[in-house]
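Predict the assembly for these three chains.
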Amino acid sequence: MSGSSYTGGTAAVSATDSIRERIAQAVNSVRETTPLAQSFTNFVTINLVANAQLAAGGTAAMSFLPDDIVDTAKIAGSTYINVGTLLPFYKDALADIARKLQYLGKPWVLDPVAAGIGKTRTAILQSFKAAPPTVIRGNASEIIALDAMWELGAPARADAETTRPAGVEAVDEVESSVQAAKRLARYLAQHAPNGKGAVAVSGEADLVTDGETVYRLPGGSAMMTKITGAGCSLGGVTATYLAVAEPLTASLAASLLYNRASEIAERESNGPGSFQVAFLDALWNITADQVAESRILIG
Amino acid sequence: MSGSSYTGGTAAVSATDSIRERIAQAVNSVRETTPLAQSFTNFVTINLVANAQLAAGGTAAMSFLPDDIVDTAKIAGSTYINVGTLLPFYKDALADIARKLQYLGKPWVLDPVAAGIGKTRTAILQSFKAAPPTVIRGNASEIIALDAMWELGAPARADAETTRPAGVEAVDEVESSVQAAKRLARYLAQHAPNGKGAVAVSGEADLVTDGETVYRLPGGSAMMTKITGAGCSLGGVTATYLAVAEPLTASLAASLLYNRASEIAERESNGPGSFQVAFLDALWNITADQVAESRILIG
Amino acid sequence: MSGSSYTGGTAAVSATDSIRERIAQAVNSVRETTPLAQSFTNFVTINLVANAQLAAGGTAAMSFLPDDIVDTAKIAGSTYINVGTLLPFYKDALADIARKLQYLGKPWVLDPVAAGIGKTRTAILQSFKAAPPTVIRGNASEIIALDAMWELGAPARADAETTRPAGVEAVDEVESSVQAAKRLARYLAQHAPNGKGAVAVSGEADLVTDGETVYRLPGGSAMMTKITGAGCSLGGVTATYLAVAEPLTASLAASLLYNRASEIAERESNGPGSFQVAFLDALWNITADQVAESRILIG
């Protein structure tokens, strides 16, 4: 998401691969059907999350009350939960909400912001193992921390207490999270009603995986790290696509939309203020083909 | 508020009607006296509410603590309460605040966002019947839901439990809310210290009523539905005008200001990012005459 | 901060004064080392605080949970606490957090927004006397109210209960707060591990003092009062500089950066919407020399 010239020894997805068609379809379907994605997200970037979902063509509803979240989940196509800023009473409430989403069979996106910092956040993230989301989107440090908390890897790494706190900025490179991302994606798929899940890791070259194939998405703009909420709003837009598409397609469509829009915004802006304005405009104006024709690497 | 070519068989308010003078006076008075309007509003759009109030010429203070809200209400010209995002402890706190505003004789604007969703919100909105606001601003679905909750209509409709949840987006047309809006406005007027109240319904052609006359305000921009907080900030600016004008004039002035500013912003922008920037600029630059000379239909 | 042509009979700091070098160094150091400043701040302007810190070159983390705040303080260069919008449970939590910051020896900036309004806020601000911040930034009314609450002046004034509430807008002129600002700065210095503290008062001509010397910073733009969060985000950027510089330099650098950037933004904008965009761009593009070569008056 933040500008790269990733050139690993991996194959490019062909121009005629069916995944491109599914991505274009997701982008268009959101614009045609304006699906409702609900968000429980942090106080910092909540406005950008909603505006990005609207600019992508969806409809937004932001909830904080447990009874609101469950009521709205019933009428929404998907839900986005971001643990960036928490209040004490969410410790029990969010675990309960995850169980209710599971019971309702509703797809949701988890953004494990700052995974590893704070006992309340750790307790909440651990509780989600029993009622997991459909998609997880985070930076490399957060994905590694969550994988360790859920003890999905080798026993030697499985002590969340000794995991280095991730903070809100990634301290790890995307590549170091590949195995954690695949393990998490397989775990999500195993627990999903339709057997499908995905994990997206934001970084110099974004990574998206369904647990089997690993897609790498080069490009984007480093200016995305100079506005707050780039990652959070990507999680929100992923939820918007998840309301109309399966997890892998939703994750790819959202990350590619963000990469192409941020490149346009960087060209048209003169600093972080005008960048954010141009970015929202680009989310609105970009075509489904521009998104679907992106360079995508496999492996 | 969202773009229309409403051409119902209704009469236009004449160019010399005294309501136009009162609207122009309200717009100018806010700019000259920078009145303080306090807001208790949701976490999503709070920043835009404050910025819109400032751009319209007023002064903003946003409060969440019950003791802050009551303390600030005493020195503010008006208060705005928006129930979009609630926390559990507001269930009792907001009912108590409404009683204190009533005791203090302070005018306030209610924005019943998502009326019908969530037990906590329903309990709060029902409690306001005993200590009602001066103005209510919402979309058609919210106005219909609130009228049903307060059981102001025929007994057959008066079961809030069976009311379809409104969500944050209107699922009803403005026209379907006319009777509910009139009943609510009459109820507000009956309980106001000065016998005056108003209800504003946002939609393709906004509707404003004091319970007797129904005003329809054609125009505006559909882009207002592509940024978050258009409705909330209109509620906030209505409170700003309510600090200097009576309820009907305040509601008309705010809705007309929004319609004209959104038309300017649509012409000058290239997507939702630049639209919001241009909209705030237009709120600041538009003249009182441009607002007061708007087309206004009656009946 | 809000535009002035202050021409009091005070001496100008010479072009070669070493303070200018330290200011330039702080501006550059933030851009080179992207230090993490943590914020506990209000819901209204939290997004602008984070974006301003990023635009100045720093890294932002916003926290609301007590355990998050303490955990993040350990890895952050500084912390910013703004009491603009509080929730009931912060009454005890913030006093405890201040004690932990003191125990950890971590520098922090206090923004006593609306000092004097609300019992909860007053209790919190009083509790900070025992574990004071490193820098205080506020408007004249807030600085006067806090000085009275902490009973630093003559006994006759030392009754916080009778202090006129400051509100969020200053009702006092900067000049009336000079003695209060100096007393507070000396108190902060006496209680700081390294013996240094500073107080910054925002107004027509900003004032910064370490308790001994009083610096006045003419210039800026009156448009800063027409966007919400100008003061809050200045507090946040002061914390960003406090992560790399001592209190006086950090306060001067932040206030001067804001004055120069707001002048540029005023020239390049057409209202409060485009002003905020241009302001964030200017924070990003302005040079350290432009900041350090500002006119600074002493005395």
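Chain C is about 45% helix and 15% strand. The beta strands of chain C are 11-12, 36-40, 59-62, 78-82, 108-111, 135-139, 198-202, 206-209, 214-217, 297-298.
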